[in-house]
Amino acid sequence: MSTSTFFYITPNSSTSTFKNLLSSHHPIKTQPTSFLPQHLLKTHVPNRKRFNLATASTPTVLESPPKSSFRDKPPKDINVLVVGSTGYIGNFVVKELVNRGFNVIAVCREKSGIRGKNNKDDTLNMFNGANVCFSDVTRLQILEKSLENLGVSIDVVVSCLASRSGGVKDSWKIDYEATKNSLLAGKNFGAKHFVLLSAICVQKPLLEFQRAKLKFEAELVEEAEKDDSFSYSIVRPTAFFKSLGGQVELVKDGKPYVMFGDGKLCACKPISEPDLASFIADCVLKPDMVNKILPIGGPGKALTPLEQGEMLFKLAGKKPNFIKVPIEIMDFVIGILDFLVNIFPSLEDVAEFGKIGRYYAAESMLVYDPETNQYSDEETPSYGNDTLEDFFKKVLEEGMAGQELGEQTIF
Ligand SMILES: NC(=O)c1ccc[n+]([C@@H]2O[C@H](COP(=O)([O-])OP(=O)(O)OC[C@H]3O[C@@H](n4cnc5c(N)ncnc54)[C@H](OP(=O)(O)O)[C@@H]3O)[C@@H](O)[C@H]2O)c1
Q1: How many whole angstroms from 87 Cα to the centroid of ligand 1?
Q2: Which one is predicted more confidently, 215 or 2?
Q3: Fewest Cβ atoms closer than 10 Å to its Cβ: which of 15, 123, 129, 158?
Q4: Does residue 42 sit within a domain?
Q5: CATH number of 201's domain
Q6: Domains in the chain: how many in total?
Q7: Rg of the chain, C-alpha, whole Å
Q8: Which tens digits make up the pLDDT trace of 162-182?
Q9: What range(s) does the NAD(P)-binding domain occupy (predicted)?
Q10: What residue owns the CA closest to ligand 1's atom 14?
Q11: Atom 42 in ligand 1: which residue has the minimum CA distance?
Q12: Is residue 247 included in any domain, yes or no?
């Protein structure tokens, strides 16, 4: 049985003390008094106004700057706030940080997961060993109130937030605004380091979610430039396994493998959720990952869709059978959608989804050199042990459970 303490706070909670929270009408699984070590419970929660650095026009100086960095403390005394904790990567990040002994506060929605399929209890069960804080990252005041109610300071914020749809407005709302809220709220409660899960594709931004991510990245870097005591790690991973597993079961059932062009238009170094979570957790303490943009892929060489398809047919014991779709078909469809958006603005997201599909069909998820317009396998660092081949084998045996794509089934 777990010895962890579950404690959660709702966004509407109007109380600010642990005692009051205990008597809230929401069920609490175990005694929250052991939620955090005693010395952290006593930690002064900084005055929000005084610490509102990111919105201040001139940098504000901390009244009593910390003599030692949170990096000098043992993990059990380091409070890590994780936003986007219920996502494909976020939930592995929470588990990895818990395993490493950090004091993890996972910020969640009351209904989380794809199409809100998880209720509060599902979320609490998922995050064994972490402290769950139900709040709303899209509303700064509510998020700050939730953190105030926790009554503790934050050392590090890890953001795995992402728009679940990739739609235009939602991308700006989540990949930029909600992530910015997490930075502002985190800093106001003492955070000295921010780990951002971004994406390698922002190197060549053609899509709205990439522009939203880049805007936040730039503001995060700016924040560290004007505040010496604050740092960041921006993690830009290549493709996730879930984005490459969509055809495994089709091939197993004898269907052809569909790819664009000759199947060599793009390549990636896929990385698994546990490996990426481990890399992100490294960013919390490792000094050599501080104030850096970190592109990262999984083990082995980069793989094109053709190579992925060949691997899949071999593993499935089937004769290779490819359908090659000219990429121009996508350009034609996108052209029509772009035209229609001028007449029917409500089609904005449909047109954007077309562009996202086109982008992933033709652009590599590798380190990009804008001067030569080339992607490089060699320049893209590798991390971890999980291979795409092992992932394909697993899906062939067990199916795609846990690897579902987001709401628009694009990524
Ligand atoms: N797919 C790929 O191959 C790939 C490759 C490289 C990088 N990336 C990047 O990796 C990042 C994470 O991807 P992922 O697949 O882990 O994302 P995901 O599974 O879609 O998770 C998104 C997280 O953001 C939260 N979120 C979304 N909308 C919200 C809202 N309105 N209010 C509160 N929370 C909200 C979700 O909470 P709920 O559970 O409550 O919805 C969830 O925790 C993204 O930035 C993506 O661009 C992806």
Answers
A1: 5
A2: 215
A3: 15
A4: yes
A5: 3.40.50.720
A6: 1
A7: 22
A8: 999 889 999 999 999 999 999
A9: 84-286
A10: 88
A11: 87
A12: no
Phi-psi region of 232 (alpha: psi -120 to 50; beta: other; left: phi over 0): beta
Cα(343) to ligand 1 centroid in Å equals: 31
The answer to whether residue 349 is domain-embedded is no
Measure 322 CA to ligand 1 centroid, in angstroms.
Answer: 31
61 within 8 A of 51, measured Cβ to Cβ: no
Asked if residue 42 has pLDDT above 90, the reply is no
The ligand 1 atom nearest the CA atom of 270:
3
- From 86, 169, 400, the mutation candidate for ligand 1 (largest count of ligand atoms within 8 A of CB) is 86
Q: Higher-confidence residue: 405 or 126?
A: 126
pLDDT in tens, 194-242: 999 999 999 999 999 999 999 999 999 999 999 999 999 999 999 999 9
Q: Residue 161 falls within a domain, yes or no?
A: yes
| CA–CA dist 87, 129 (Å, integer) | 17
pLDDT category of residue 411 using cuts at 50, 70 and 90: low
Provide the H-helix boundaries in 23-131. 38-41, 90-99, 120-126
Range of the domain at 64: 18-240+270-296
Residue among 174, 200, 271, 276 to mutate when testing ligand 1 (max atoms within 8 A of CB): 174
Ligand 1 center to 388 CA (angstroms): 21
Task: List CB contacts of 401: < 8 A, sequence separation 6 or more.
Answer: none
Contacting residues for 144 by C-beta, under 8 A, at least 6 apart: 48, 184, 185, 188, 189
Look-up of token digits 């390698």: 200
pTM to 2 decimals?
A: 0.85
Within 6 A (CB) of ligand 1 lie 84-90, 109, 112-113, 137-138, 160-164, 174, 197, 199, 237, 239-240, 243, 406, 411
User: Which whole number is the average pLDDT over 3-17?
Assistant: 37
Which stretches within 62-150 are classed as H helix?
Answer: 90-99, 120-126, 140-150
pLDDT digits (tens, 9 = 90+) for 48-104: 332 222 222 333 333 343 445 899 999 999 999 999 999 999 999 999 999 999 999
Round to whole Å and give the CA distance between 32 and 9.
11
